[in-house]
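Help! Submission page says 'invalid entity' but I think these are all valid:
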Amino acid sequence: MAENKIPYKIYLTEDEMPRQWYNLRADMSNKPAPLLNPGTLQPMTATELETVFCAELVQQELDNDTPYFDIPQEIRDFYKMYRPAPLVRAYCLEEKLQTPAKIYYKFEGNNTSGSHKLNSAIAQAYYAKAQGLKGVTTETGAGQWGTALSMACGYLGLDCRVFMVKCSYEQKPFRREVMRVHGASVTPSPSEITQVGRKILAEFPGTTGSLGCAISEAVEVAVNTPGYRYVLGSVLNQVLLHQSIIGLEAKLALDKYGVKPDIIIGCAGGGSNLGGLIAPFMGEKLRGEADYRFIAVEPASCPTLTRGEYRYDFCDTGMVCPLAKMYTLGSSFMPSADHAGGLRFHGMSSIVSQLYADGYMEAQSVRQTEVFQAAEEFARVEGILPAPESSHAILAAINEAKKCQETGEEKTILFGLTGTGYFDLVAYEKFHNGEMNNYIPSDAEIAAALARLPKVD
Amino acid sequence: MAENKIPYKIYLTEDEMPRQWYNLRADMSNKPAPLLNPGTLQPMTATELETVFCAELVQQELDNDTPYFDIPQEIRDFYKMYRPAPLVRAYCLEEKLQTPAKIYYKFEGNNTSGSHKLNSAIAQAYYAKAQGLKGVTTETGAGQWGTALSMACGYLGLDCRVFMVKCSYEQKPFRREVMRVHGASVTPSPSEITQVGRKILAEFPGTTGSLGCAISEAVEVAVNTPGYRYVLGSVLNQVLLHQSIIGLEAKLALDKYGVKPDIIIGCAGGGSNLGGLIAPFMGEKLRGEADYRFIAVEPASCPTLTRGEYRYDFCDTGMVCPLAKMYTLGSSFMPSADHAGGLRFHGMSSIVSQLYADGYMEAQSVRQTEVFQAAEEFARVEGILPAPESSHAILAAINEAKKCQETGEEKTILFGLTGTGYFDLVAYEKFHNGEMNNYIPSDAEIAAALARLPKVD
């Protein structure tokens, strides 16, 4: 292990950093289906979307043809604060596993928000400011997205109002406190300050909230407050566009050393990391220039791709947002409260869904105790405490590396390490104490959630 | 701010990483005073020290003459996992302050332990393993050092027994959990498993422990368990030797761009970061090759250099460890419980103390509310949530940069950003809620603690 030609960490120089995001849709022959207006069930127009989202972001959301979008200089400067993110050669993990496989991971956790979410947060905050807005609203569950958005808004001097699911607000006070460091206002949801919040509180006085309710509150405030818009950290096409920076940097770093991955692995919740990581590689595959094996890894407790249906569904449980065509477990599906490992969204990015439906990608579901086992194994040799979400990809990568050990194949594996687990230690504690279970939803449970959906297809 | 010749972050390549640690003592004409045996008050011999510490580390501890020590290949490989640490040009902070000063910081927080402590932890664990030991014992207060040592031992397969001050064990369960991720055993101190622990529990049944007690327990276990030694994360000469990697990398990075700092600032608790950061620069100053202004920054609540006395004292409150000649507030001095900002040690590295006594360095004490104000200001523009300890240096750097704004001088400032504040959010919360105070010990309080010391000088 002494002297390797490829360093432990490959950093691009600032001059080498990408100046454009890549829009994977431009190379897809089957484009992702459009968002539908929940009232008319007709495709959402730009005008309709602009009541909720910033104008520039609506253009990015609807553009299925332009392959590259310039990254504005101000965003590139912000990226330089925490990027280029390192591409790490996992020499220590390889040695531990005694595998002939070559393992690389793109690490996105080296910033205070602790995840890749910041890549899109700064873009969305930038366009909001450029449009002359006063602020943005959003929801957050565990708090990764809310933290990232708070950082971006704090930097740009934009007001940031976060609705945080009440049980997370109370159980994760540290995440809330980081948002306050960056000047955001954080409101536990459901709250008394919105109509929908008051309605839910009247109906369920003791509720600890849900992501669906927090979305509805954030949208209500954005729509009713002059100078405000709503922003979202995953699922949307615009988010995958911004997150393409992950894959673009990874590919540039690999290209510098003439390395071509055989297998590319990403964890999949709403698809923001997975879609960003695979983007330029998938583009090559779609254009017939190269072939790669892509694996989306999701929790067995929320198995959207592996057990969901590909159809139109609401993005929120409140059913007030537009409908997206995607793999879904049904917008009323709720993962078990015992599920600690993130990636709890019932649906999936329309882009990722379409690629999966068209056979360009595989999907695996994994159990959370095995995920934490892999996380701990990884932490001990690679020196990074991974987020539970990221650890889904770690587990799949370890499994592939073990197969190489059996077959003797020297495959090159690339996976996305989306973030750090500093705010997930309650889950690690449960794991250490043997209190973590592996709840898996029944077919009947999923069927029931899907049966509650309106027929659109 | 668009195109700067000097990038936001300067990373050395792996080939450029230092292959030797620098021993500052070799260039000091007044050497630091030797450790004294608490029984005989005579200088501790190598044989005496080897009952507690690893043999190789004892050599490093006692060697005042050899200027460079080779870093073993295994340690260099481990360093590659999380180093080289970036030297960051704080463009965003400079812009925020509208200062002509050029601000750089060496960031040591990009690893799971979240601080520079890992630099010495891996070295001490390595020599313990090379000596054929089974394991090591240590104490930890807030948990930074314990976490770092757990990581190093977990990596090398060495048993790691940490005595964690009971109040921290209970109030900082996340730190404890990270240590468990790396396979360490963590015992709340005082415990029932040592003689000294049982004695203290019998005397003070409800006590929540102290660092001094935890040290005594860790030493007792190391001395009485075959195959174990005790290790320590600060104060000792060997620790400053290992931490010289911080300053060596910083200097190499600055030299690459022809930059020479005017002012070098480090926070000072036991002196591990400060001594490491300044080492190669101070060496130049001692040899008359260059001049720099050095500033040690300490909390007003524990003002060792600015209000302590330079004399022999115990390193532990239990008065069982060797005596060191150092600036001290008295080993029975306890900083106020309201003090949240780290750097609580009553004494100071003998090397740092001697340099300060000889006039090579300045010292400042700062109040903790101002420290947290600076921390927040920094986080918002630089995207890193700093540890309270590091934030003492941030505050001093900001103050120097503001002076430049007044005078128009384009000074170059380098400071050490020792770590991240992910596990210090209770303190940030206190700050946000206006519940943080600025307790400063009275002259009488310090005099009383000093009066309790034996006369040795």
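Support: the input was valid. A stray whitespace character was the problem, and the output above is from the cleaned input. Residues 237-256 of chain A form the longest helix (20 residues).
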